[in-house]
Amino acid sequence: MEPSPLELPSDTVQRIAAELRCHPTDEQVALRLDEEDTLKHFRECFYIPKMQDLPPIDLSLVNKEENSIYFLGNSLGLQPKLVKTFLEEELDKWAKMGAYGHDVGKRPWIVGDEIIVGLMKDIVGAKEKEIALMNALTVNLHLLLLSFFKPTPKRHKILLEAKAFPSDHYAIESQLQLHGLNVERSMRMIKPREGEEILRMEDILEVIEKEGDSIAVILFSGLHFYTGQLFDMPAITKAGQAKGCFVGFDLAHAVGNVELHLHDWGVDFACWCSYKYLNAGAGGLAGAFVHEKHDHTIKPTLVGWFGHELSTRFKMDNKLQLIPGVSGFRISNPPILLVCSLHASLEIFRQATIKALRKKSILLTGYLEYMIKLYFNKDIGGTKKPIVNIITPSNIEDRGCQLTLTFSIPKKNVFEELEKRGVVCDKREPNGIRVAPVPLYNSFHDVYKFINLLSSVIDSVETKK
Fold this sequence. Notes:
EC 3.7.1.3, globular, Aspartate Aminotransferase, domain 2, pyridoxal phosphate, 4-stranded antiparallel sheet, 16 helices, pyridine nucleotide biosynthesis, alpha/beta, Kynureninase, 7-stranded mixed sheet, cytoplasm, Aspartate Aminotransferase, domain 1
């Protein structure tokens, strides 16, 4: 039976448990959820690391032939099996025909990025001409800020969240320094309220309203790397633009994770990496977005040959014919081997669709949240059991697939014991462990096994105290 659109994940779990006449924590529930999952076959499109191949594994605690529980797609997505095929196609072409590969084949090297850029449209909710695949995330962020950040004596601030990802923080800091501005005065950071982890939207909007006349650019992450909070991008965009600010987003943790509608939201610019939820491999080809409304008003500050119109690019007359919009920001020719790995993953997204993936993700992460609260709730009968707290917002509209957990016992010990048992997740300072069940390749049974291992780990850590 399909859950109704309004059915919460917890209600779905309880409904299935009632149908099966078992407790919601029973393995049968996970198996039924997997059975009803219409996207489950996409798991076969990826290589899932085996227990025996993980460096921290303790082989005495696991079956070495089993798949690991890989909950780290928020840091590095798994390898699509199609990557090897696509790479071999281009390596073979290079070996057989050398430079002729620039003009022929499935992915002519001159336009390799343009061949696949259309596959990004639905993932970020933009027109094809508003997207460029190029460089790495922070390089793109610098290129975009050079054009969108034009400070004046009155409007000189960049607004961001206080614990932004370090590369965003450094990029903004250095852009301010490039313009000779005082970082403490012009770098406006919003902190959560005292004793809270999550930024409140009303606080963000209040700062924009009060200080918007002095803010040149608002740059937020779409989804916060540490807390897992999904920001209300349309509301931030609307509020910022109403005060005359340009509004941009770092979508590193949002792209391929949640639905995005950059064009319809009217976002001015955005950038993202491709090695997390987009599964393009370490250092994969990044992306950038500039809204079409800026096609003829915002131009790149730094230009290169690949920003020149293709039709006249090879005249080599050094008379720049700049491509309007974001494609004009491209500086160099596309790295075809990186194009291949991204292409392989985007083909899977095309088949699965981001809408269907998001629907599964809500239930998958909701099942994880439900199980954690059931097993480790601090309100359980006055016991002194260790507490697992979820700092990620509980509202499904305010998060993606990641949950950030904190513990009443040392997180380092919990993390190390999870690693020994084949759970691949990560820890982030000051005190979080991030777990991200990815709908493309994680199953509900993965969640079930994780919860049982986490319970075992917590008991183990407690025993050793």
